[in-house]
User: Fold Dihydroorotate dehydrogenase catalytic domain-containing protein from marine metagenome.
Amino acid sequence: EVAGIPFANPVGMAAGFDKNGRIIEALAAMGLGFVEIGSISAHPSEGNPRPRLFRLPRDEAIVVNYGVPNEGSDAVAHRVDACPTPMPLGINLVETNTGGATEPEHVIAELTAAAKPFRARADYIALNLNCPNTTGGESPYLQPRRVAELLSEYQGINALPPVFLKFTAHADPHRIDAMLEAVEPSTFIAGFIFNLPPGLHYPLRTPSSVSDSMPGTLCGRPVRSLIDDAT
Assistant:
C-alpha cells in the first residue's frame, strides 16, 4: 500500500505506453499492479516532428523525443470514465507541447485545468514537471519557488487524489534538498518519481558523429547509475 492506495503487486505499466487511455482494460488483464496513462496535457498535441525515436544498439539505449503527443485531458477523461478497472489507475499530466518555452503562470493554469477532469476517476496523479522533450526552453520547475507556486494552486482543487511529483534526477543533494523544502508544506504530495535530464551527455560507444545529431533524451543502460543514485 502506498499513499493509502492498495497495490496487488509492485509491477505496473508506466506512462508513455498508453498515452491516451485506449488499452487500459487490456493492460489490466495482464495482471499488472497498476497502470499509469499519459502523459496528458490540457490541450491536444501532436508531439514533436518525426523521426522522434532513435536506437543506439551498441549502448543498449534509446533516444526519445516524442514530445508527449496526446488527445488532451477532456477527451482522455471521457474515455477513462467509461472504462472501470480493477487495479489502481494513475494519470500522468504535463504541460501542452507548443514547441517553445511557456510562461510559468500559463503552465500552472494548464496543469490545474488538466487535473480537474480526472479527480473522480484517478487513484493518483503524477505531475510531470520536467519532461525533457516538451518545450524549447528550460522547465520553470527546476526552481523550487515555481514548484511552491504550482502546489499552492493545487491546494485549492477539491477532491484531489494523491499527487506524485516527477522531477529530473539530480546527483546534487543541495538541489534535491531545496526541492523537498518547497514541497514540504503540501501534505497532499504522496511521493516522487524521477525523470531523466535532457541530452546525451554520457559516455557512449556510439560515435558522436551519429549521436550528436539526435534530439531528445537518452534512456537505457548508460543512465542506470544516475537513476539509482537519485533514488
Summary: The longest helix spans residues 104-115. The mean pLDDT is 90.
